[in-house]
Amino acid sequence: MKLPRELSEWLSRRRRFREEWDFHREMAISEFEALGLSRTEATRLAERRLGSYFAHRRSALRQLRAQITDLLDVLPWCRIRSSALLVPAVVLLTLAAIVLPNPHRLEVLANTGSLVPFLPNRHVDRFVPLTPSNLVPMAFPDVMLWGLTLIGLARVAATPKFRRQWRIWAFTAATLVPLVVLSAALWTTALPLLMKDRWHSDALQGLALVTFCFAYSGWAFLVFKVWYRDLLSRCPICLRRLGMAELRGNSADLLIAPLERETICLYGHGVNLESHWSQTFEVDRSTKWPA
Ligand SMILES: [Zn+2]
Questions:
Q1: What are the CA-CA distances from residue 273 to residues 22, 242, 285 (Å)?
Q2: CB half-sphere exposure, 166, CA atoms < 13 A
Q3: Phi, psi (rounded to 5 degrees) for 139
Q4: Which run of H or of E encompasses 70?
């Protein structure tokens, strides 16, 4: 079976240390043998001169990027991870995994749909018997998700490197809409589990509801934070992940030489520079891609 090119390169980088080590060991042994020492004595002295095999191997593999952890970057996963389709696909699959096994899936979707303003209320029977309308109360996720969506859109609009980049706006829409639907579906799936029946202790049920609201808020903030970080780590032209990160400057310095992180689009669309002060993307004008 033919191995993928990246995997065979990784294996040959790992073999390279062994070959070089054997070469230098043999050279050192022959040097000592030339001085009239026995093979055993020459080997012992050569090993003392070269030092620890494992320490050298560890540092060599790190420099050659041939450690086990580097294997993650050469597997097909790396190509999937850099694809712009991965985020919407994962979100939609998670949404399907939450909604489809639920016997009340139609009610969940109808409640989720009520997040869209100005839509007429749809009649859903006895979904959550403990609430006055038998429906899942949607005011909390409504305010939270709309608030986070507007903040997310404002941040994208305020990021200079995303200006006039229609692909970033298309990607924003393609990820933000499924994320909001997923978050709302999560609320309409989880809340009925807590409110379907009356618990023996009202205080315990109330505490569970308050805890759920806090956990849901934390989760929503975290999801939007990760979403924005993912957006910043992409090339605004081809939407693939930027790579070959290089750190410059000093983290203690804010004005003279602030810490800067330079990454490039591996497909030649430009150079990304992020620091405490700004996020810029210098488009490579020599490529045929539009800015
Ligand atoms: Zn690119």
A1: 43, 11, 17
A2: 2
A3: -60, -40
A4: none
Distance CA 180, CA 46 (A): 65
CA of 161 to the centre of ligand 1 (A): 13
pTM of the model as a whole: 0.64
- CA-nearest of 178, 161, 181 to 239 is 161
Q: Read off the amino acid at residue 43.
A: T
Q: Is the dihedral of CA 167, 168, 170, 171 positive or negative?
A: positive
Q: How far apart are CA 20 and CA 53, in angstroms?
A: 12
Residue type, 25: R
The Å distance, Cα 266 to ligand 1 centre, comes to 7
In angstroms, rounded to a whole number, what is the distance separating the alpha carbons of residues 236 and 226?
17
Query: To which residue do tokens 């580097």 refer?
Result: 70
Dist CA 126 CA 100 (whole Å):
19
Pairing of strands 279-283, 270-275: antiparallel
From first to last of its 291 residues, the chain has per-residue pLDDT tens of 556 777 888 888 888 889 999 999 999 999 999 999 999 999 999 999 999 899 889 888 887 778 887 776 666 666 666 678 888 888 899 989 988 888 878 777 777 777 777 666 555 554 565 666 556 777 788 888 899 999 999 999 988 888 888 888 999 999 999 999 899 888 888 887 887 777 788 888 888 888 999 999 999 999 898 888 888 888 888 888 887 777 777 666 666 667 778 888 888 888 888 877 778 888 877 655 554
Determine the distance separating the centroid of ligand 1 and the alpha carbon of 76, expressed in angstroms: 19
Q: Ligand 1 centroid to 90 CA: how many Å?
A: 22
Q: How far is the CA of 146 from the centre of ligand 1 (A)?
A: 31
